[in-house]
Amino acid sequence: MTISSLDFGAAPHARLNDRADLRRHVEEVVKRTPVIDLHTHLYAPEFGALSLSGIDELLTYHYLVAETFRSARISYESFWRMSRAEQADLVWRTLFVENTPVSEAARGVVTVLDAFGLDTAAEDLHEAREFFRGQNAAEHLGRVLGLAGVSDVVMTNDPFDAQEARVWEGDGGIDRRFRAALRMDRLINGWESAAAELAGRGFGVDAGFGGATAAEVRRFLDVWIERMRPLYMAVSLPDDFNYPGGDARDRVIREVVLPTAREHSLPFALMVGVRRGVNPALRMAGDGVGRADVSAVERLCAENADVRFLATFLSRENQHELCVSARKFPNLLPFGCWWFLNNPSIVSEITAERIELLGTSFIPQHSDARILEQLVYKWKHSRRSIANALADSYERLLESGRAVTRAEVERDVTRMFSGNFRAWVGMGAEAGEARAVEVLAAE
Ligand code: HDL
Ligand code: ZN
Questions:
Q1: Considering only CA atoms, which of 358, 356, 351, 355 is closest in space to residue 332?
Q2: What average pLDDT does the segment 410-415 reach?
Q3: Is residue 281 located within the same domain as residue 240?
Q4: What is the reported pLDDT for 428?
Q5: Ligand 1 atom closest to the CA of 370, numbered from 1
Q6: Tens-digit pLDDT profile for residues 251-278
């Protein structure tokens, strides 16, 4: 079953000439169209403890940890000595009881609690802990994916992570709703230690790139591509990323990653503009943002016209430039409102300028979820902003003399929510899509 064959209760080819009617149809289609979540830090159930869920994990999300330190009077050392539950209690008291949870990450937890019928203004976490503790994991996963309208979850998979590798090296498969992405940060951004690690595993690699180093690193990637069957390769890059860069990163990209992308027909996702460890005392919450040079990505696209690139930038100041670059290079597919951009005010702005410059030839969002239930809020909040931006564009089209039909709205949203990604990575229509829609239709 494809999304366009679903009956949303309207004449699919009637022109939507009434503004209020038009907006209602757009909101309904955006709310119910399943999405492929192309970048998350979630794990399939088979990964055990790596798969995070529940209220204590939700409240100790690094976004909320950073916000808590702004309002709680506690030292870094005292906080990090606390148990997960003690940290969650402090976050709840600080951001949700003593203050109003109006930040995007805090409001997200409220959206999740509300979705499960839990008290969103409780004094403590007793009820929430009881609820999540009592859930059947398999049923809960299906319910979350249905509420979020997510048909497929793309993970972030690191071949250097020992805990994760043990699962991949096992002979069991993984839940078909979860797909892999081969994350290359340690190889591309930490070449010296990656080279030592690979040499230690018996690959003929040396940090000076001598001998058969490039071929041996490609052999390492071939092994993991065979194991993970990733949909794409990805790397996060600093705000000062340059290409050509004349450094080890440049050699790894040119001599290893790009030839591997060609050989396996795998897109390469560039996530640019992160400044790691701005405040190390905050640990995972300590990264910052910097405006990057979009022309570096343009040169990569120009020099490798046969490679498909996905790109997202972390700085709001880079978004318009990325849209213009994507107009110049058909092998560049912008995606998502990443991390510090995933706020309604900015998602609305970015989506509007992407529609104006790229039509529907982009991917509006990914969740970046780290904890399962975040899918519920990240997609509910994003769908609202995306629907408003899309309805505005259809209204302007109406003013120009062209009304859209319901079928056209469904076609456009399906293209942005899954079609563009499926085409980019060569992914067929999966059963997961129908499953998500069934649950949502029941809502
Ligand atoms: O590098 C990344 O993929 C980022 O998304 C980081 O994981 C970041 O910590 C994050 O969770 N952002 O939402
Ligand atoms: Zn991420």
A1: 358
A2: 98
A3: yes
A4: 82
A5: 11
A6: 999 999 999 999 999 999 999 999 999 9
Ligand 1 binding pocket, CB closer than 6 Å: 41, 156, 236, 271, 284, 287, 339, 368, 370
CA-to-CA dists, residue 152 to 195, 268, 437, angstroms: 33, 19, 12
Q: What local confidence, expressed as pLDDT, does residue 58 receive?
A: 99
Ligand 1 centre to CA of 101 (Å) is 22
Both 356 and 302 in a single domain? yes
Q: Parallel, antiparallel, or unpaired for β 178-179 and 182-183?
A: unpaired
Question: Across residues 319-331, what is the average pLDDT?
Answer: 99
pTM: 0.96
| Tens digits of residue pLDDT in 128-142 | 999 999 999 999 999
Our measurement of the distance from residue 13's CA atom to the centroid of its chain's CA atoms, rounded to an integer in Å, reads: 33
Looking at residue 9, its pLDDT comes to 52
d(CA 8, CA 29): 8
Asked if pLDDT for residue 6 goes beyond 60, the answer is: no
Q: Which residue lies with its CA nearest to atom 12 of ligand 1?
A: 339
Mean pLDDT of 37-63: 98
Q: Which residues contact 5 (CB under 8 A, 6 or more apart)?
A: none
Locate 224 and state its tokens: 């993991």
Q: What is the largest CA-CA distance in the chain?
A: 68
Domain count, the chain: 2
In this structure, the residue with its CA closest to atom 9 of ligand 1 is 284
Same domain, 335 and 243: yes
**What is residue 10's three-state secondary structure?**
coil
The CATH code of the domain that includes 129 is 1.10.2020.10
Looking at the DSSP assignment, which residues form a beta bridge with residue 309? 268, 332
| CA 405 to the chain's CA centroid | 30
